Automatic annotation (TrEMBL):
Keyword terms of this UniProt record: Endoplasmic reticulum, Heme, Iron, Membrane, Metal-binding, Microsome, Monooxygenase, Oxidoreductase
Family: Belongs to the cytochrome P450 family.
Name of the gene this protein is made from: Cyp6a13_2
Protein name: Putative cytochrome P450 6a13
Membrane disposition: Peripheral membrane protein
Places the protein is found: Endoplasmic reticulum membrane; Microsome membrane
Origin superkingdom: Eukaryota
Amino acid sequence: MRIERECSRDYRVPGTELTLPAGTLVAMPVITMHRDPDYFPDPMRFDPDRFLPEEKEKRHPCVYMPFGSGPRNCIAQRFALFEIKVALACVLRDCRLETAPATPPAPLRLEPTAFLSTPADPVRVRVVPRTDRPASGGSRPAAEAPTESVPASRPTESDPAPRPATTAQ
Ligand code: HEM
């Protein structure tokens, strides 16, 4: 995923000899910042504490911007985050997700030609019914038998084709 902005005026990049003329389209590959160890030590480690308020205060707000930034950022950021949490809660209420022999090993390989961050291989996981939830815990009964491994996510033919490179020369 990259975020693009067009220069509205000539802009000298601080600390360099580079001047971007007005009209230049600048593409920012945000994943490179999200995985930059200068900002996120051991970036591939799952560490939710990185997002504690005191940790976020230590870095520039534009270092992590999965929904973009500024007046043209994603209009659905709150909706998308809420939707993801509801979907996870619905699944995890009834099931545990475990790795299986078919689960690709970490680190996840991404499809280099996809516009969005898309796994290069199907991420197959084992879906195991939870036995530890109280019987009255929800309106739906827990599943009774493990289901087959299913791809949690896979590249689709409908993924948009990559756009031409637009990075400033
Ligand atoms: C996890 C889910 C999502 C992610 C990570 C995401 C990410 C993004 C990003 C990076 C941008 C560009 C922001 C920028 O240039 O600064 C964007 C723009 C946008 N997104 Fe999302 N988005 C998500 C879900 C959604 C959903 C569910 C909707 C609509 C229901 C939506 C509607 C839009 C719209 C309309 C824009 C263009 C805003 C503008 O140009 O002013 N997004 N999104």
